[in-house]
Specification:
10 helices, 21% strand
């Protein structure tokens, strides 16, 4: 059995309209990775494979049937024997549960995620892994979803790249830098037992990344590495992110979990919770203005 270099976990729920684009983008980026001579040498990719783990979260719209029928030939007409497509059928438990199911069986030295309605941009995988190779002490890299860049507070800057920054737990409490679609993490994080919180269906990534950033060195690339297949807004439009109230409750629960499990102090918890509520009301105003402009 060949060594697995990269595992990509993708949860699917009623995603029949976007599943193909999501998988295609990941498949193509893994192809580009193995064709990149520099990275192939750095990571010794010659005798490895990478896996895409598709976790069907109890979909009822034809997603399960689509996933059962996919093969490498659907995404490339070349030799892609170094990519393994795997499908897991699960009882509906939400994205957190589906991602955990994938994490529990993944074998990669590096682990990444995508969402079923999002796609990786061209060369995004090569770029992120190139940066990780230049930052050997970093355990995780993440980047922007749906926006080219964002205004940042004063963050510690990395020397290897002009748009690269270190994220501390204090930084993360007030602004969620980590997007699952763009995060690549080293195996040892998963081996430590860190997982998404089972049962959480909204803002589950907040708690997941607080656990990581409290223990490991994490870097943020202030560049766009992924986008929505349907070109939807980042929040307040559709899907889980369309339910602002539930998203806010999930974020507050994540902060409470972080406090209860001693990742943050009481003072950090209170100030972060207040700031979160203020962000919530700001988002309500943004969505209201957006809808008014569309009338």
């Amino acid at each position: 059995m060949k060594k697995v270099f990269l595992s990509v976990v993708i949860p699917f729920y009623n995603s029949s309209r976007t599943a193909r684009e999501s998988i295609t983008s990941v498949f193509s980026e893994i192809e580009n990775l193995y064709q990149d001579k520099k990275l192939a040498k750095i990571f010794s990719l010659e005798d490895t494979v990478s896996e895409i783990i598709c976790c069907n979260d109890g979909a009822v719209d034809g997603t399960a049937e689509y996933l059962d029928g996919i093969s490498n030939a659907d995404f490339s007409d070349g030799n892609t024997s170094f990519i393994e497509l795997k499908v897991m059928h699960l009882k509906n438990g939400g994205a957190a549960s589906a991602r955990n199911a994938g994490l529990n069986v993944c074998r990669g030295e590096y682990i990444a995620f995508n969402d079923s309605d999002d796609m990786w941009l061209k060369d995004s995988l090569v770029k992120r892994l190139s940066i990780l190779s230049e930052e050997p002490n970093a355990d995780l890299i993440t980047a922007n979803h749906e926006r080219e860049s964002q205004k940042l507070p004063k963050l510690a800057k990395a020397k290897s790249h002009v748009n690269l920054f270190y994220i501390s737990i204090k930084d993360e409490l007030y602004k969620n830098y980590y997007t699952t679609q763009n995060s690549i993490l080293k195996r040892r994080i998963i081996d430590s037992g860190i997982r998404f919180k089972e049962g959480m269906r909204y803002s589950e990534e907040v708690y997941f990344f607080i656990q990581i950033v409290s223990k490991y060195k994490c870097i943020f690339l202030n560049e766009k590495m992924s986008r929505s297949v349907m070109s939807k807004e980042r929040f307040g439009e559709s899907g889980l992110s369309g339910n602002l109230r539930a998203m806010e409750k999930g974020e507050l629960r994540s902060l409470k979990l972080a406090y209860n499990e001693l990742y943050i102090t009481h003072g950090q918890y209170v100030s972060a919770a207040i700031f979160s509520v203020l962000k919530y009301f700001r988002r309500i105003l943004i969505v209201a203005k957006r809808k008014a402009n569309k009338r």
